[in-house]
UniProtKB/TrEMBL annotation:
InterPro entries: EF_Hand_1_Ca_BS, Haem_d1_sf, Host-pathogen_enzymatic-act, WD40/YVTN_repeat-like_dom_sf, YNCE-like_beta-prop, YVTN_b-propeller_repeat. It comes from Methanosarcina mazei. This is YNCE-like beta-propeller domain-containing protein. Keywords: Signal. It comes from the Archaea. Residues 247-538 form the YNCE-like beta-propeller domain. The lineage of its organism: Archaea, Methanobacteriati, Methanobacteriota, Stenosarchaea group, Methanomicrobia.
Length: 676
């Protein structure tokens, strides 16, 4: 256990108060720090320091502190840096915050006007170590200001993955708790965070370090970790296959920063910025290609589209657009881009093969957002003409590139999103403080949900929830079954863009006013991380790669297509398989062009399994737990590499299997073609 030393500074009879530049000390080693009562005007004095060489942290007790208008009492560290300033302050019998260090100096600055009582300090409390002792990291409660410390590492040599349980984590504004891996690389950052009794995400590796960084202002409870959970490799299968380089389509978040003219690339596994890509002027909208290989950025200031290669995080092409392009979306097959040009009141249609504009469709006044139906047949464009209380949504037929319907939505509609089954369109109406729900068959409004000044909007992969950013600096969660707001999550300042990860577990909210991104756990609706971005981030659109929309229909024995989202790469050597099919599955990977298995694993419904990553070129099969004679076997059909999957040594792969999603297809096959 940790030790707290408390020292009472006694007032010796006959001792004089400190006044002017005259100081009187006792024969004791301790100095009583006290002003005259009342203090003088035009006074500027630093008392002899309060020093305890053995201390790592200190705090002071005031019997009374009373200052007149604009007078200041300043606490300084050993080097004269400010710890805290009390101004126009009045209080009695209180402790200061904890401050890191073994020395505190007290300075009083007064003006030439009124005076007041001043102050008297009668106690000093010290801590003699950086943190409490124990098997797992724990901070002092409350922690100290100006604190920067890494606890002894949490190491489990047998583990391949780890996660931590917090009994409580409470941080003051701008203070950070950072989890690091064995090499000191960031796994996640908790900032301005307050939560109890929760688990972190799973992190690859056998070591986690905990680091606390605090500023010089207020403090809070801190944290306590009481449990560690690990995963070990359940299976280890060796392969003797020639390795082949692989390409990555990991789920990264691409955040457009309008004030710094660039895009921040966030790894959604550990919530860190891994790259910053310079683009055009005032980037606003963003869309990721379905295969994750390209990102398209609408530059509102330079009237063009930047094309980013996700493998290199560099701009490979720039496409001219209309005036002030804002919203942007990619067709489900990845062959077309739809760009909304707010100042020219039209939509540019771009061929992704040639990067040429092939059509221009006239929309309504000041079009803003855009979304494509999952079947690729219709495009929905919000027309946010300011001053019009009944703005519209233009419905564009993608074959003819003509507007086939105009739906009256609400006042100044901004964001727009389509449900995965394509039956509903959700429109965020900033001007009328609500969200409109459009039936895509009739193009009629079927319901409205009241939300104050909604901006960005997106639908979860399973279609059960809609996430809406709004001017109240929070995220509203709508249940699509009854179109009611079921939760409200506080985020950063002036939230704009919003997107969901392919597995539906996390929502990313882009905060334009606070220049960061809030990461929300969808199970608990709690912010679990805050990631810094550039200046004025917006990311209006589908900015997370590998987005998957799953069918709402339950899995059954019919010969339906099953698809996967493959792969997600992080440093490591493990294969993590997630089963979202709705039934237990068996995954089998065979040698290329062979039915000879090199890897087998059973995954129960809604469960994960982690195994040693095989390397080389393999074929991929899964078997559903239906009767064997009813389409139980499927084989992956990749777009490239002759149907083979490439796995490279030195990476982690996460493969998530969905029922009827729009990832890579697995085709039903007869048992005669199944693995041996």
């Amino acid at each position: 256990m940790y030790k707290i030393t408390k020292m009472i500074i006694l007032l010796v009879a006959g001792m004089c108060l400190l006044t002017g530049f005259v100081t009187t000390t006792t024969a004791l080693t301790n100095i009583l720090v006290e002003s005259d009562h009342a203090y003088a005007n035009n006074f500027d004095y630093i008392w002899p320091e309060i020093s305890h060489p053995e201390a790592t942290q200190m705090r002071l007790h005031f019997t009374k502190l009373e200052l007149d208008f604009d007078d200041k009492l300043i606490l300084l560290d050993k080097d004269g840096n400010k710890l805290v300033t009390f101004k126009d302050y009045k209080n009695e019998d209180f402790w200061t915050e904890w401050y890191t260090g073994n020395t505190i100096k007290v300075k009083l600055e007064t003006n030439r006007y009124g005076t007041a009582y001043g102050f008297k300090i009668d106690q000093v409390e010290t801590r003699n170590d950086m943190a409490p002792s124990g098997d797992l990291p724990e901070s002092y409660h409350s922690y100290a200001n100006n604190f920067n410390y890494i606890w002894p590492e949490i190491s489990r040599p047998e583990a391949t993955q780890m996660r931590l349980h917090f009994t409580k984590l409470e941080l003051d504004f701008d203070d950070k708790l950072i989890l690091l891996n064995k090499d000191g690389n960031k796994l996640v950052t908790f900032k301005d965070y307050n939560n109890e009794d929760f688990w972190t995400e799973w992190y690859t590796g056998n070591t986690i370090k905990v680091k606390l960084e605090t500023n010089r202002y207020e403090t809070a409870y801190g944290f306590k970790i009481d449990q560690v959970e690990i995963r070990t490799n359940p299976e280890s299968i060796s392969m003797d296959i020639k390795e082949t380089p692989s390409s990555s389509s990991a789920p990264f978040a691409y955040i457009t920063n309008g004030g710094s003219n660039n895009v921040s690339v966030i790894d959604t596994v550990n919530n860190t910025v891994i790259a910053v890509v310079d683009v055009g002027s005032d980037p606003f909208g963003v869309a990721v290609a379905p295969d994750g290989t390209k990102v398209y950025v609408a530059n509102m200031g330079s009237n063009n589209i930047s094309v980013i290669d996700t493998a290199t995080n560099s701009v490979t092409d720039t496409i001219d657009a209309g005036i002030n392009p804002r919203g942007i979306a990619v067709s489900p097959d990845g062959t077309k881009i739809y760009v909304v040009n707010s100042a020219s009141n039209n939509v540019s249609v771009i061929d992704t093969v040639t990067n040429n504009v092939t059509a221009s469709v006239t929309a309504g006044g000041i079009p803003y957002g855009v979304a494509v139906n999952p079947d690729g047949k219709k495009v929905y464009v919000t027309n946010g003409d300011i001053g019009n209380e009944n703005n519209t949504v233009s419905v564009i037929d993608t074959i003819s590139n003509n507007v086939i319907a105009t739906v009256t939505a609400g006042g100044i509609p901004y964001g727009v999103a389509v449900t995965p089954d394509g039956t509903k369109v959700y429109v965020a109406n900033w001007g009328s403080d609500n969200v409109s729900i459009i039936d895509t068959t009739s193009n009629n409004i079927t319901a409205r949900v009241n939300i104050t000044k909604p901006v960005g909007i997106t639908v979860s992969p399973d279609g059960k929830k809609v996430y809406v950013t709004n001017v109240s600096n929070n995220l509203s969660v709508i249940d699509t079954a009854n179109n009611t707001v079921t939760a409200t999550v506080n985020v950063g300042s002036d939230p704009s863009g919003v997107a969901v990860t392919p597995d539906g577990k996390k929502v990313y909210v882009v905060n334009s006013g606070s220049n960061n991104v809030s990461v929300i756990d969808t199970a608990s609706n709690i912010v679990i991380a805050t990631v810094p971005a550039g200046n004025t981030p917006r990311a209006f659109g589908q900015f997370i790669s590998g987005s998957v929309s799953t069918s709402a229909a339950p899995a059954g024995p019919e010969c339906k297509e099953i698809k996967d989202y493959l792969p997600v790469y992080t440093n490591g050597v493990n294969l993590n398989i997630i089963n979202k099919v709705g039934k237990d599955i068996l995954v089998v990977w065979t040698k290329a062009d062979s039915r000879e298995p090199v890897f087998k694993v059973n995954i129960l419904n809604e469960q994960n399994r982690t195994v040693t990553t095989p390397t080389g070129i393999v074929d991929e099969y899964i078997r559903i737990s239906y009767p064997q004679e009813v389409c139980s076997w499927y084989r992956v059909i990749q777009a490239t590499n002759s149907g083979h999957t490439q796995l490279e040594s030195g990476y982690d792969y996460t493969v998530t299997y969905y029922w009827g999603s729009n990832g890579t297809g697995l085709t039903p096959i007869p048992d005669s073609e199944a693995p041996e």
